[in-house]
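Sequence in, structure out. Go.
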Amino acid sequence: MRTRDLLVTVHDDIPWVASPHRRQGLGPLLVRRFEKHGPSRGCATFYLETFSFQAPPLYRSLGYETRLALHGFGPEIVKYVMVREAGPLRVAGLDDPAER
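Output:
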């Protein structure tokens, strides 16, 4: 799995789960394992790209929202950019006056 850190955002190039292994919880497991690494790297936003024939419903069920839908990849094929905000980024010494 390849990731790219962009300020406090992480882009995920999520691998495919082969057909015989789908619907067994592997997709959500891969996404959540990826997301676990965000906070330790200061990332508060996760985004990914997926096509309409891939797994948009899975990502929606995990809290991702469609931010961009690009048409023109073929009949009824849409490329989605989906985002999930992990919550406010806390920076020690800046967010809490008691930590200064």
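Check: Residues 39 and 100 are 21 Å apart (CA to CA). Confidence is low (pLDDT under 50) at residues 1-9, 96-100.
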